[in-house]
Specification:
Helix content: 25-40%
Shape: globular
CATH superfamily: Aldolase class I
Structural class: alpha/beta
CATH topology: TIM Barrel
Largest sheet: 10 strands, parallel
Radius of gyration: 18 Å
Strand content: 5-15%
Bound molecules: S-adenosylmethionine, 6-(5-methyl-2-OXO-imidazolidin-4-yl)-hexanoic acid, iron/sulfur cluster
Oligomer: single chain
Number of strands: 10
Length: 327
């Protein structure tokens, strides 16, 4: 269900929330979280890179851009069988949503797109929610994705409009907003967030949060990524994002977008259990489950299962016996 932007928020209001003392902010976010969500439930997505590397975009954080020398193995579009195998494993491991990512600038009509449409339909038939992140799409492609059974389209704003050109030059902020509109107009839910650690200021983070919260309806899913620095990329030497910066971002997102699911996304690998616990308290209620994000490692399922038990959390789906799905 799309949730209308409750009231027109102003940039000053976002700044006032973001700049509160950390514990006041977390306290308010936790209150908001408990008023709108079951605080024990965590939405679990598993990611798969269905087409890896050789991307024509120059996103300066990304291992997959052909503009950088990241020593990543390129891989053409996977077969439907490979994707279904991974999706069954994800389902068995306790994921409730399967997200397919392609290193494309934009979707091109033709046999590869048709293969992706058929992957989506069959992943959906496994009883998983479906999400895809394929770069820019036009209204016709959005309609086809929706018809194939795509529940969520992921397209991040990444950073503020002001900082954006420092990070990516091969497509504009406006291009991103247009793709989000196409996905929304076709009836899909939106997964849209950003990345911390791209050299942005607090004002940029406030501005990004303002952009996200002002979308009407607000995105149903908001990933908060911390940069995973990739050697060979222009941002490969960025200092790590501190735990309290992630907590502050999650908590502000929770207050501004009370009904959205806020995902503690890339960068969780580098966070302690204590820091993650603080994020869950502050309103994070989604993670990527599984050993791998797109091209970088994630926390292992065993570690997450132990953390869930410790914190009294549970996934939307219980992990299944692997054999019951003939993985
Ligand atoms: N190519 C498509 C696109 O960019 O729209 C989809 C895949 S792209 C890898 C999806 C998102 O992953 C990016 O928008 C960015 O927010 C995130 N991402 C990519 N590399 C990252 C990194 N090194 N650290 C954190 N987030 C990253
Ligand atoms: C999102 O916001 N984060 C995910 C997903 N959407 C597609 C991607 C994270 C990628 C991290 C770096 C990598 O594994 O290549
Ligand atoms: Fe390509 Fe997406 Fe990576 Fe940008 S973030 S280089 S568009 S794969």
């Amino acid at each position: 269900m799309a949730v209308a932007c409750p009231t027109r928020i102003t940039l000053d209001e976002v700044a006032e929330i973001y700049r509160r003392p950390l514990l006041d902010l977390v306290f308010e976010a936790a209150r908001m979280h408990r008023a709108h969500h079951d605080p024990h439930e965590v939405q679990c997505s598993t990611l798969l890179s269905i087409k890896t590397g050789a991307c024509p975009e120059d996103c300066s954080y990304c291992s997959q851009s052909a503009h950088h020398d990241s020593e990543l193995e390129r891989e053409p579009l996977l077969s439907k069988e490979q994707v279904l195998h991974a999706a069954k494993n994800a389902r068995a491991g306790g994921a409730d949503r399967f997200c397919m990512g392609a290193a494309w600038r934009n979707v091109k009509d033709g046999p590869e797109f048709d293969r992706v449409l058929s992957m989506i339909s069959e992943v959906k038939d496994l009883g998983l929610e479906t999400c895809a992140t394929l770069g820019m799409i036009n209204p016709q492609q959005a309609a086809k994705l929706k018809e194939a059974g795509l529940d969520y389209y992921n397209h991040n704003l990444d950073t503020s409009p002001e900082h954006y050109a420092e990070v990516i030059t091969t497509r504009t902020y406006e291009d991103r907003l247009q793709t989000l509109d196409c996905a929304r107009d076709a009836g899909m839910k939106l997964c849209c967030g950003g990345i911390l650690g791209l050299g942005e200021s607090d004002d940029d983070r406030i501005s990004l949060l303002y952009q996200l919260a002002s979308r009407d309806p607000q995105p149903e899913s908001v990933p908060v990524n911390a940069l995973v620095p990739i050697e060979g990329t222009p941002l490969g030497d960025q200092p790590p994002v501190a735990w309290h910066e992630v907590v502050r971002m999650v908590a502000t997102a929770r207050i501004l977008m009370p009904q959205s699911v806020v995902r503690l996304s890339a960068g969780r690998h580098a966070m302690t259990q204590e820091a993650q616990a603080m994020c869950f308290l502050a309103g994070a209620n989604s993670i990527f489950l599984g050993d791998q994000l797109l091209t970088t490692p994630n926390r292992g399922a065993d570690e997450d299962s132990e953390m869930f038990t410790l914190l009294g959390l549970r996934g939307v789906h219980e992990p299944l016996e692997a054999q019951s799905l003939e993985v």
